[in-house]
Write a structure and sequence with these properties.
single chain; about 240 residues; alpha/beta; Rossmann fold; seven-stranded mixed β-sheet; 9 helices
Length: about 240
């Protein structure tokens, strides 16, 4: 083991978010026990896939386009997109188990079947997605890490953007929503450095939400507190 690896052989990746919050409701515990395993995208974790063999996306989704949501929060947007786009397969990654439990309840209610869940770090999922396999990716209201010394913890850094860029098909779309002006600044600097073009032609292209957008609980909180959402769209070169 080196100072850059875990005893399992995994790269040593610092994780700064929360894995669990307040206690789960009985119904949420039941969703986790009964539904989560069946919605796995396959062997993602190092303990079950130490060789980092790529997932068989064709077998998983029958050759449909693959979309990915990075940190799906309570799952509103993920379920909305799955229901509105039955012709695609969507994988959501979220390490916060309370959010995973919330999503599972929404999946039951919506009855969607084209959705899979990785209840962990998106970087581990990136390890095992085939190169050039993702047609669309979403990063919606990520943790802002507002203190300057914490900006390296943000998603829009090379540690995350390099593997994401490798996974995206040429012409694939990457959407970022945030209400933090400095996160907008960092996104517009870093994302184009990793093979993406910003598609905005005028102010309406970042002030107005996407046509298929559903406002999340995080966005509603931002609006109540007077913060202004920004909707940034990039295309993989």
């Amino acid at each position: 083991m080196s100072d850059k690896t875990h005893p399992s052989g995994a790269p040593w990746r610092n994780f700064y978010g929360r894995f669990k919050g307040k206690g789960l409701r009985k119904s949420q515990e039941r969703y986790l026990d009964e539904d989560l395993d069946a919605l796995s995208p396959g062997p993602v974790g190092w303990e079950v896939n130490p060789e980092r063999a790529p997932l068989d996306i064709a077998a998983l989704f029958g050759g449909r386009d693959l979309w990915v949501e990075i940190g799906f929060g309570g799952g509103e947007h993920l379920v909305h997109q799955a229901a509105a786009n039955p012709g695609v397969g969507i994988i959501g990654a979220e390490p916060y188990i309370n959010g995973v439990a919330m999503l599972l309840g929404k999946v039951r209610e919506a009855g969607v079947s084209n959705l899979r869940i990785h209840p962990g770090d998106a970087r581990d999922l990136f390890d095992v997605l085939p190169e050039g396999s993702v047609s669309k990716a979403f990063l919606l209201y990520p943790d802002p890490w507002p203190k300057t010394r914490h900006h390296r913890r943000r998603f829009v850094t090379p540690e995350h953007l390099e593997p994401l860029s490798r996974l995206m098909k040429p012409g694939a779309e990457f959407r970022v929503a945030t209400d933090i002006p400095d996160y907008v600044r960092q996104t517009l600097i870093e994302v184009p450095r990793h093979g993406f073009d910003w598609l905005a032609e005028g102010p309406g292209d970042w002030r107005n939400p996407w046509a298929d957008w559903i406002s999340t609980r995080y966005e509603q909180k931002a609006l109540r507190e007077g913060r202004v959402p920004h909707y940034l769209t990039f295309r993989k070169r």
